[in-house]
Amino acid sequence: MKPLDRGILSSFDLKKKPILIGYTIMVLVLVVMSCSMLYPILTTLFNGLKTNVEVNSFPPRFLPSEWHFDNFNKGWNFIDLPEFLRNTLYIFGGNLVITVVVLGLASFSLSKLNVPKRRAVYFFFMMTLFIPPTTYIIPNFVNLKDLGLMNSFAAFWLPAGANAFFLLLLKNFFDEIHYEIFEAARIDGASDYRSFVQIALPLSVPIFSTLAIFIFSSSWNDWFWPSLIMHNDSHYPLATAIYKYVINARGLALNIRFAILTMVMLPPIVVFLIFQKYIMRGLHLGGVKG
Amino acid sequence: METHAVANAPLERKGRLAAFWRKHFWGLLFLLPAFIIFILFLWVPIIKGFVYSFYHIDFVKGNSFVGFDNYKVALHDGDAWTAVKNTVYYMFLCLVIGFWIPIVFAIAISELRRFQGIVRVAAYLPNIIPVVVLYGLWRWFYDPVGPINGVITGWFGSEPVAFMTDTNWSMISLVIMESWQQFGSAMLIYLAAVLSIPRDWYEAAEIDGAGVWNRIRHITLPSIKGLLGLLLILQLIGTSQGYQSQLAMLDGGPNNATLTYALLIVKYAFNQQNYGVAAALGVLMFLVLGLLAIIQYRLQGKEGDVR
Lengths: 290, 307
What we know:
The structure holds two protein chains of two kinds. By secondary structure, chain A is mostly helical. Chain A contains 15 helices and no strands. In chain A, α4 (81-112) crosses α8. The radius of gyration of chain A is 25 Å and the shape is globular. Chain B folds into two domains: 2-52, no CATH class; 69-306, Orthogonal Bundle (MetI-like fold). The mean pLDDT of chain B is 84. Chain B has helices at 2-52, 69-76, 78-110, 116-128, 131-141, 147-155, 167-195, 199-207, 212-223, 225-240, 244-250, 261-270, 275-302, and strands spanning 55-56, 64-65. Chain B is an all-alpha fold. Chain B has 13 helices and two strands. The chains are: A mainly alpha, B mainly alpha. At the A-B interface, α1, α4, α5, α6 and α8 of A face α1, α3, α4, α5 and α6 of B.
């Protein structure tokens, strides 16, 4: 049977006047909502193209009266964006590798291999989900200091493997792969290691790309924690550098500031719009993220 | 017979051990790195938090045991009570301003026949922008001579509002900013749930004479009830720990009006270098939030398919 072509409202409802008016208002509200989502993004872009006098004029205008593309040039020269971008990508790449290796192996083992006292082991990992991270943020910092990881990328890479939520997602994913595949591999003489590398990993590309989205957004967004761990420019990720040198900068002209913000904002938006379909599906796969 | 068994016991145990290793070797080896990392970077800090709350932490001279002094300092600090009040206020505002918006928009968007994809992407877009960019952007929005005040004074002719520096407004302004940024992700979760409700239920209800509001009230909302409860708890857990936007936008000011509890912990540690009191505040918070986490666990058990 073909699914009914209706939502809460049927096509019959839409012929009634009060409902039609209500529906039109709802659509208008949605249009306004969409515009309010786009407006700040466009404002950032256009403010980056105005003269500084115009950005500071009151009341503000939306479109620039003259287009100053050299603001972007000045912004590019103001801070060393490529270096900070490289640091962010270091953190992202390392976190992803550690997640795949450490959590991939562990969830595969929990899901498909013989583990003694499986429930207790699983509980050992999952318990950490119920302890709010803010309550141990300080001991965590002191702990990293004790381990001598200050001002090193390892302070991000290694703890990336300690993520019970990702472990849960991965284990649920592996649970849905049938045992038969691995049994067949074993009969053909594959070791457990080989079944993981040659069968489980290729099959789990979708879940790892979902995790990659989460990891990307956290390494692109996180500014506070890196500002505590890292001590110099050669280690700051982009978000921290922007916060320290652009948002909190005194004496930086507003239009240049907006130009820099635009340059930081555009790459993730472009990536999102290109891979929008997959990302939306991936987010759905990830389910609820706390 | 009996003596024979005793004589063979060590051998048998050895055999059993070998069998155990043969059976479990790969399983345990694969778990080993995760074990080490979870202990080193999660369990050790969690346990150290309890330990440190009884110590005075000094990186140079070494730690010294102080008993319950840290807790006394924390409980006698007037700022701590302000922070608790502010956190509760913040959680309340997030519920009042932020919680219902995604639900309403999810239902509304599910009713769109065309352009649903575009609206969905637009709603999710603020999640894509790095938060630091948003901080810069909203500082300008909320500026006394920013665009919002431009509209207020220009169109309505009223006095400009000091969104950031007025103590009555500062927390509300932050919550509006965060709601704007974050509502898309919750909306997507609700939207998926709303769209998965079978269409013929509505058909049946309509034939039985249920109006639009009754269809929403008796079909849509009950269908997503479990999800509502779960996201409510997750939001409470999340907002009770909120400090980043308060720190980035206003640094807890004006006059401590946006000093949340988590921000107080951070300030104790990194402004005053008083890690012991910060750890004690963390333990106190853990005791309260543990309760919420247990409720969440219960709800999640019921709503197993959400994860």
